[in-house]
Write the structure tokens for this entry.
Amino acid sequence: MPVRILIADDHAIIREGLKMVLESMSDMVVVGEAGDGRDALDKAETLRPDVIIMDIGMPELNGIEATRMICERLPSVKILILSMHHTNEHIFRAMQAGAWAYILKESAGSCVVNAIRAVMKGHQYFGDGVEVPSKTRHTSPRAILQSPVDSLSPREVEVLQLVVEGKTSAGIAEILSLSPKSVETYRSRLMLKLGVTNIPSLVKFALLHGITPTEPRCTE
């Protein structure tokens, strides 16, 4: 049976390029594509792929949070992170979320194929230019605080990303199935934890720690 793969990236040209490479392999088949983290979460639950190639920087729900959620719901799925970031924090957070491989976009190509074959054998894979973290989810049972992001709950991270991407409280409430009042509570709490007092400071934090992929447009 060929390895069933879901590609999650917000750039269609990257999805198409990866699909061409993967489907040229006789032992691999692309079963679906997703354009953002929430779409990836939905497609993962519907399609039940063996491997997900996950862009780390996607709108609405970033790749690290999407990885964490998918791994909690579908622990057998192997997730391979594609990223432009090679900082220790990004790598550590991705692996702690449950990813099995981390590859830089600049050196993807055949690395993706090699990574898929490695993770399907139960091995972690780190591409060229990626420093292997000393501790990961798969080698250490206890997470160690490495970033201010780790002080936030998963829901607070979701709210943070949507806030800095310009969503209103009402819009966030609809996306997350919360009340607007709950959204305001989450926002106040996360700002207190991070020691910031305004939205521009939240934006800087989100960009610095890879929570949102691009410079957002705030509306509140």
Q: What stands out?
A: Residues 117 and 123 are 9 Å apart (CA to CA). The radius of gyration is 17 Å. Confidence is low (pLDDT under 50) at residues 139-145, 216-220.
